[in-house]
Every structure is written in C-alpha cells, then in structure tokens.
Amino acid sequence: MKEIVVISGKGGTGKTSVTASFGVLAGEKAVIADCDVDAADMHLLLDPDFSDEHDFYSGEVAVIDNGACTFCGLCKEECRFNAIRIVDGRFSVNPVKCEGCGYCARICPEKAISNKPVKSGRYFVSAIRTGSTMVHARLSIGASNSGKLVATVKEVARKQAAKLGVDIILVDGSPGTGCPVISSLAGAGYVVFVTEPTISGFHDLKRVARLTADFKIPAGCIINKSDLNTGIAREVRAFLEDHGITLLGEIPYDAAFSRAITIGKTVVEHDEGRLSELLKGSWNKLMDVI
Amino acid sequence: MDHRFGRAAYLLVYDEESGSMDVFDNRSNAGEHGVGPGTARVLFDMKAEVLITGNGPGGNAAAVLERAGIRIFTGAGNMRVKEAYENYKTNQLIKFN
After folding, report:
1. pLDDT digits 0-9 by tens, B28-82
2. How much is the average pLDDT of B1-29?
3. Quick count: other Cβ atoms within 10 Å of Cβ A26?
4. With an 8 Å Cβ cutoff, is B31 touching chain A?
5. Closest chain A residue to B29, measured at CA
6. Measured between alpha carbons, how far is A161 from A167 in angstroms, rounded to an integer?
C-alpha cells in the first residue's frame, strides 16, 4: 500500500483541485483521505454520500454535578478562563470558554466537577462518484484540525484501502508545516508539493521540502499557475533540481481551473483540453516514480 | 510496527544485554497536539539509547531525542518488530540523525 500525501505550505496553490483531479484519474484504484479538515472542501468536488458517519472526540470540558455542588464558589473564583458562571442559581461551565485544564475538578472540595471528552466533529466514510471511497471529516463550530484528527482519518482510510484491496491512498494534506501536516506525513510513501511561482508560494515550498527531507520521504512537485512569474518559476525549478525533487508537471494559469471549482467539478472532468492533458501527464509521471 | 512515532500505541523496549523485553502502553498519550514530544519524553525517562520507527519523529520530538542523545533509525514502518530489529542490526535501516 502506497500513501501519497499532497501538501503545499501556502494555501490557495491549487492543492485540493490537483488532489481531486488525481482522485478522478485514479478511479477505483485509490482511496481518498481529506486531511485538510480546517477548510475541508474536497467534498464539494467529489460529491461524497456521507453514508457512514462517526463522532470524533477531542479535548475535554469540565462538567459540574449540581447534586454534589455546595455552591462554595471556589471554582468560579479560581478559573482563569472565566468559564464558570451562575445560571438559574446553579454553577455551570461555559463550554466555549472552558479549556479543559481540569484545575476546577482538582480543587473542588466536594469532588463535584469532572472532565468529560468533547465531541468536536464527525468523520465520514463515503462513496464518491469515481467509484471509490473517501474518508473525510467535518468539525463542530470553533473546533480546529489536529494531529489526532488527521491520524484518525488516515487510519480509517488505510483500513478501507485494505478492505477494498486498493494499493493507493491519496491524502489531501493541510496547509502550513504544523502538527496536522506532520501527522499527515506519518507513513507517507511519497509527497507531492503543489506550488505556485509567487514569493510566498516559493517560501512555503522550501519549508515543506525541508520537512519532508527530514523524514527522508521522496517528493515531486507540480508548479501550478507556472506562468504567473517566470523569474520565480525559474528559481523554483532550480530549487527542485538542487533538492532531488521530481518536477511532475507545470500548469499555466487558466481561468478554467477556477471555473471547474465554481461548478463543483474537478479540473479533469470540466476541461477536456490542455489542463486535463497536463494533469494526466503529471498523474502518469507520479505513477511511474512511486 | 506502527508508522507513527508520537501516536504509536505501544513501545516495545528491548534490553540487548539481558535479552529482556518490556511493553510500554503509550495509549494515554493521545492529545490533539504535541504527542511527539510526549513520546520522546517517555523514551528519555526510560533512558532509551536507540529508537526504531517509521518515517521518524517531527521537528519538536526530534529536538528532544537529539538532546537526550538517542540515536534514531527509520524506515521500519512496514516491518514486523523482529524484522525491524534484524534490519537495524545489519545496518539496513535509515539513520535519521
């Protein structure tokens, strides 16, 4: 089983559009995992059916047992997040403010407070129109992506792939180089960078390249909007060459790329011409190198 | 083996001198963030000298392990533990640091 993780560092480079297009090109041969859970949008392109749904818990929140509470007020006094309030004459915890630190539970003389896990979202195992399976998640309001959630999504995707006898897992990673990205790289067999020739795009490419080099994971790169700035594009190519990163393809700026998104289709389904050919070329090259 | 370092459910501790084996249950180290440094700390506390794992620890965990002088070998994510150890003994794993 080979896990291909697509990351970009900078957001807005076309990472998800490329991943979704690869998903369509792979058809039944790849299970898709959307690990960009903060701003999950691949479901808009691949139309999952949300058929199999699971709760996801992360973090904790304090809960007061009103039967045991003697209204001493110590918790309210001590909570540095001001998360304890009085509602209808009873002490209660404001779950939005509570950080789940557990201090109130520790100091409560009546042991009336305990920490409970928080349901922070749901994850889904869905059928998608490529004939394959997609694992994705939806966060509750105010919840954020984490290494833990990414690990869960990837683990479920692995199990699905094993069950279906599928060799490839295609992972849409999250932007940046933080905890969720590091978590998405665990077990990765190959990393695809999607970059753009802008100052911030190139800057972030260098950061993600350093991260994957630390893990010694082989990598390739797609330069999207490659004609935006020919000078930086040249620098990007030289950087890839110097760092042993395979250039998987270059895609010039094309309004059809964003038009595909607005009608909820992947680029390869929407555009029958040049863009599609370039993405197919990149996918074939990727299949050759992994 | 688990591909993951930080979120590995168990750590198998092997003492080469005595040939004894111990299992450390690492499942409680399951926070949203920062589990890598947490697992690194466990290795530090148990005075481990060598770590064998999948792709390797992230930057923060690697910094802790480096300070602790723990040598790291990667590339064992798809192996069985026995196989991973044999590959380590025959220098076939990847040196991480």
Report:
1. 888 888 899 999 999 999 999 999 999 999 989 999 999 999 999 999 999 999 9
2. 94
3. 22
4. yes
5. A148
6. 7
Residue A74 backbone zone (phi > 0: left; psi -120 to 50: alpha; other: beta):
alpha
User: Is B28 in the A-facing interface, judged by CB distances under 8 Å?
Assistant: no
pLDDT digits (tens, 9 = 90+) for A153-177: 999 999 999 999 999 999 999 899 9
Query: Any chain A CB within 8 A of the CB of B9?
Result: no
Best B2, B3, B27 member to test A by mutation, with max A CBs in 10 Å, is B3
Q: Which of B32, B77, B94 sits opposite A146 (nearest CB)?
A: B32
Does residue A17 sit in helix, strand or coil? helix
The torsion of the CA quartet A12, A17, A22, A28, rounded to 10 degrees, works out to: 130
Distance separating alpha carbons of residues A135 and A264, to the nearest angstrom: 18
C-alpha closest to that of A38 among A147, A182, A170, A157: A147
Put simply, the answer to whether B7 touches A187 (Cβ < 8 Å) is no
Among A212, A214, A217, which would you mutate to test the B interface (most chain B Cβ atoms within 10 Å of its Cβ)?
A214
The whole model's pTM is what? 0.89
**In the predicted model, is pLDDT for residue A287 greater than 90?**
yes
User: What is the end-to-end Cα distance of chain A in Å, rounded?
Assistant: 11
Return d(Cα B93, Cα B78) in angstroms, integer: 12
Write phi, then psi, for A99 (nearest 5 degrees).
-95, -5
Q: Is the CB of residue A267 less than 8 Å from the CB of residue A21?
A: yes
**What gap in Å lies between CA B53 and CA A210, rounded to an integer?**
20
Give contacts of B3 with chain A, Cβ < 8 Å.
186-187
**Dihedral of CA B55/B56/B58/B59: which sign?**
negative
